[in-house]
Design a protein that fits this description.
3 domains; Udp-n-acetylmuramoylalanyl-d-glutamate--2,6- Diaminopimelate Ligase, Chain: A, domain 1; UDP-N-acetylmuramoyl-L-alanine:D-glutamate ligase; 23% strand
Length: 452
Amino acid sequence: MNGYSLSEISEWVCADKKLFGTVDRIVTDSRQVTPGSLFVALEGENFDGHQFIGQALEKGAVAVIAHKKGEEPAEKTLYVGNTERALRALARLRRIKIDPVTVGITGSVGKTTTREMIAAVVRQKYRTLTTQENLNNNIGVPQTLLQLTPEHQAAVIEMGMTALGEIEELATTLLPQVGVITNIGVSHMERLGSQQNIRRAKLEIVQGLREGAPLLLNGDDPLLWGYQNPDCHVIFYGIENKNCQITAKDIIVLMGSTTFTICYQGEQYPAHIPCMGPHNVLNALAAFGVGVCLGMEPKEAAAALDKYQVSGWRQKITPFHGFTVVEDCYNAGPESMKAALTTLAGMPCQGRRIAVLADMLELGYLAEQAHRRIGELAGTLHLDAVYAYGPLSRLLVEAAKESGVPDTAWFEGKQALTDHVIDGVRKGDILWVKGSHGMALETLVEAVYQQA
């Protein structure tokens, strides 16, 4: 199935009529239109693809899908109730036609790292498509599935959400054969209001699982431990909770890597991941579990974890001019911030362990409390310095100072923080840089490399 039948598409999206012929690709960005394309005109809060239908046709689109009527030629236009739903329908059609092994991952923290670890394992057995960058929402997931080709044997797909109902929509598009939930945190508390609602939203993945399909859950998370569902096969993984089916022991955190032993069905399997911290061991246990569920030998699945590669501002360790930078500024919430500072505290260091931080966003009524607790944690862990910027991080720095961190500084703007870090960093120091993606701390890291 390299092309798409327009007549089948017409039926699948419940269009107002049937068109005939074929298209060779489906796109949602008019700039990506090539001759033979089908253009889907999406409409969002800040954009409207219907404005670019004419441009798409001029560039050679065979047909377009729209939900608003304009001056476009009717003989080339399929009108539907909603183009976003139509896009998901097309992605589901592609997924069914290609029929790869599918794995769906969701959770509050660690989705992307877990996804990449799972992909590293699954690739040892299958030619695998995986989510790229952060294309994990109601547009990105369908766009990813539309990239499936007959050569793909598996798809490892990350699913994010901002509201109730979104994971269900994505899961019923993907129809995963294995599901994974990494944890239930407090991200999106601003919109969802409670962790129970976040739990409810994440568990919507069950709506897309086939009957009896494995669902791997983090058994160290009290909001997931004990979950039961007769329609799926629940498997728990964890470190602290030894009642889980998949556990780990003998965890040794090194500079840039972690070794541990996986315990599964009465046997033990040595494992290594090229990243640091028990939180990443949890992610690795999920990946191991997926591999076993897909028929891999446990020894093979454990060994495959070493193939994982750190990428995209996620805990990448970079030695530079005698000091070390940990680039961990893709995103941040209380759970991942706690994991980062705990790992920093345990790293071998010839100088100072310095946390360079920024606000954690979308926490709603928990925001002030969460920032204060991270500051208190920095003192409990005996970090040498905490520097931060952002209105909420002021509370974090105040709490860090009160908790005994000897060197603290808060800055209203990112440039002032950047200048302070560059002026003060010394040989032997470790700079762990972390904040929510919207705080754009990657520019601070880039400035350090250019000026320090």
